[in-house]
Amino acid sequence: MKKFKYCWNEDTFLLHIQLNNSDGADYEVVIYREYEGGKVKKQKLLIDGKTDSYRTMISRTHPRERGLNIEYPEKVTLQVFIIDDRAYYPTETYFAG
Amino acid sequence: MSNMFTESAQKYNLHTKWNDTRKEAYFYDKLSDQKVMCRLCPRRCTIVEGGVGFCKVRKNIGGTLYAQSYGKATHVAIERIETEALFHYKPGSKILSLGNFGCNLDCDYCQNWMYSQFQYTSPDKIVEYTSEQVINMALANNIEILSWTYNDPAVWMEFVLDTAKEAKKRGLKNLFKSAFFLSKEVVEELCKVIDIFAISIKAMDEEYYKKFTKGWLQPVLDNAKLVHSKGIHYEISNLVVNGLTNNNDDYDKMINFILNELSPEIPIHFTRFHPDYKYMQYEKTPIEDVMSARSRAMERGLKHAYIGNAFEGEGLNTYCPECKELLIERYGLCTYLKPSLGKDGKCLKCGYQTSIKEISDADEQIIL
Question: How many cross-chain Cβ pairs, A to B, lie less than 8 Å apart?
């Protein structure tokens, strides 16, 4: 599995993530949200294999949420975009891998 | 992330290269000498053969006006309804946000200018979809709302109307987020297929509109009143631009319009600007300014006023206008429905009926 880690900061509480995969098989992505005090909450995204490209917004959920780790299959390419305005659709990637 | 405009910004000028005749435009008249007059918006562009309107996506080919952007999108993403400055309709719900290119305005601080100003849109950002594909994408992801947004969907009108009509048959709702610089007849057609409107009013000043958006104000206000008269759910957002509209005079004009011409129950969102495009000389709007606008609105009688582009604070939350009980708590674009909010939108503490509609269990609530 590949991993992406991000720590929220004063200016950033929104990301777009885009997942690209073209082999047609369904796959799962797990988002671990890390909170103060060591608590971790797990969220799963189940991506339909028929979708080559899946893009969704991720918001920081609470002031105690410090950051997140995204785990995704090796065959998948993840692109991460930082959003500083909810009506903005960024095309410049912060991370791709 | 600011994208400052420079004179050397790459121009693709697709509007001069495309001659797509697959979709004849709605809302136009044929004139003599193969000219046409577009009726989509108050500009009423008269377009010569081979030319385009102000928006650059409606083209006269052989004396017929064609919608060049029909079935073509640049932005598709799964988001939350709060992204669209909508807090009182199905809070916390997922939406499929769709954006295209071109615009019938040219706002100096546009953050999506590389799409709204079509001459700068790269062809490799454009993907074709049918209405059926858009609807199926929503259904496959358990999404009930299509959101027509990003650059103004005003200039995507034919695709919006056609898809919205089909989407309704399949049980989906449609949300239209726009600056509402449209002709009245178009708004009447929209009201037949759109369930939720997010109306962006840039300022309450004609000179401002002309100088900073290249449009004009009165049609926007008339359209807001028209939507109000139909009883369709809508909320208003106002981008508070540092150096331009972050002052009490501007806040008061907006508040007066809502109080006197619409209703004190209509939610208003005062949203922070950030520097972009041709308006780079100011910093992001201070949060104190939008909080001040919000406080002023509430003091003067608006029941619900919010701030936008902030992560936390009371300006994001919904309180009962009567007893001030916290009904909905928000961080960023995450929504937490409180036990004090009834499924029918009533405050369970005092019985006040709020304007919040379609309340259901929000997806993936995080309880700490």
Answer: 86
The partner residue sitting opposite B274, judged by closest CB among A35, A57, A85, is A85
- Name the nearest CA neighbour of B232 among B294, B169, B183, B180: B180
Closest-CA residue of A relative to B329 is: A62
Nearest to B291, CA basis, from B269, B260, B320: B269
- With a threshold of 0.90, does the pTM exceed it? yes
Asked if B1's CB is within 8 angstroms of A82's CB, the reply is yes
Angle at B194 between CA B192 and CA B197, to 5 degrees: 130
Q: Does A51 touch chain B (CB under 8 A)?
A: yes
Amino acid letter at B262?
A: L
Q: How far apart are CA B154 and CA B131, in angstroms?
A: 17
- Report pLDDT for A9: 93
Residue A59 in contact with partner chain B when CB distance is under 8 A = yes
Nearest chain B Cα to A14, which residue? B332
CB contact under 8 A, B334 and A16: no
Q: How many CB atoms are located within 10 Å of the residue B265 CB?
A: 14
Q: Show contacts of B6-9: CB within 8 Å, 24+ apart.
A: B9/B114, B9/B120
Tell me: the pLDDT tens digits for A33-88? 999 999 999 999 999 888 889 999 999 999 999 999 999 999 999 999 998 888 88
- Chain B residues lying within 8 Å of A55, measured CB to CB: 76-78
Label residue B93 exposed, middle or buried (CB < 10 Å: 0-12, 13-18, 19+): buried
ipTM of the complex in this document = 0.92
